[in-house]
Amino acid sequence: MDRQTGIIRTFLSIGILGIILVCLAASFGVSSASRNKVICSDVSVIVRDSAHSRFVSGDDVLEYLEKGYGKTEGIPVNNLDLKEIESVLDSQSAVLKSEAYCTGDGVLHIDITQRKPLMRFQKGSEGFYADAHGYIFPMKTGKSSYVTVIDGEIPLKLGDAGRGKATSGKERLWLEQMTGLVEYMAESKVWENNIVQIHVEKNGDLVMIPREGKERFIFGKPTDVEEKFALMDCYYTGIVPARGKDYYRTVDLRYEGQIICR
Question: Domains of the chain, with CATH numbers?
Answer without folding.
Answer: 42-114 (3.10.20.310), 117-261 (3.40.50.11690)
